[in-house]
Amino acid sequence: MQDLPAELLDYPFDPVHVATEPAHPRDAARLMVVDRARGTVEHAHVRDLGRWIGAGDAMVVNRSSVLRARLRMAGTEGLLLEPCADGCWRMMLRRAKRYSAGDRLPLVGPHGVAGDAVELVARDAEAWRVRLEAGPAGGSAAEVIERSGWTPLPPYVLKAREVRHEPGDDDADRREYECVYADAAARGSVAAPTAGLHFTEGLLASLDASGVRREEIVLHVGAGTFKPVDAGTLSAHPMHAERMSVPASTAALLAARPRLRIVAVGTTTVRALESLPDPAPAGGWSGETSILVAPGHRFRHVDAMMTNFHLPRSTLLALVGAFVGLERLKELYALAQREGYRFYSFGDAMLVV
Fold this sequence. Notes:
Layout: E1 30-35, E2 40-45, E3 57-62, E4 65-66, E5 70-73, E6 76-83, E7 89-93, E8 104-106, E9 117-124, E10 127-133, H1 141-148, H2 155-163, H3 170-176, E11 187-189, H4 201-209, E12 213-219, E13 242-246, H5 248-255, E14 261-265, H6 267-275, E15 285-289, E16 304-308, H7 315-324, H8 326-338, E17 349-352
């Protein structure tokens, strides 16, 4: 059903429901529990997950860490996309036509100007290849990004904050727009795998103690995750590629089905698992995936899913619609708005079993 008209991915939405900060504590976020077999809906909180996930379940999470990928320069902004083999980076640049190869753009970081800069090397399709230059403090490109980069909050969060006259604090955003189990050594996402934002160390310990097996994948979320479906049909949408790896222990877990129920935390985890062949390679797998999971997809490695509430006309909505049923999902989104759920990256969650 990838030929479904793009307008079927629309749903009525009131922007009042856009969350601009996470719940405090994280696991106080609301949780809509959807039982597909029974056709029921329950309203709870993320801290109640142990009522539905326990012994005999395996929970798979994405441990990718968020890159400080948003760069600010005088008169423009950039978003780092991915590193290149020669040490450069691909970067989207606002007002790109104003600039030429060789231009050097000083960076303005969250705590002022540190003397770091971006040098434009060459155009690369819709992006620029750039070189990151350290200022007086010195350091590698990674250190420049960490020092002078900003948390890449989604545009709709920034817009909602602006409309509501809410101040931003990048130090707070760095803490809150990151999963507690993220691995700084796996820093590469330009957006957080947001279903995982709801977990606390206490909740994870509780699930571990109840017998839930926890495994990991890494999928570095790319900027394409925000690209709306502008084409007339979903099949005409140019699907983005994302770097991913699945370790041997997670691949071995998939061979244990159906003895274990696989609960994927987030659409990124679903994409990674469903990108694997069946049977999954015993030694794990790494590479890129450009899989488009849409209504009609036969899920091979995922039995249950925890996810946030997603944007209309998005491939994420199509993925969850494939799992729940697209019309049913739109009914659930309408219910969520009536019940006052908070939407999108910092919003509430849905568990589909």
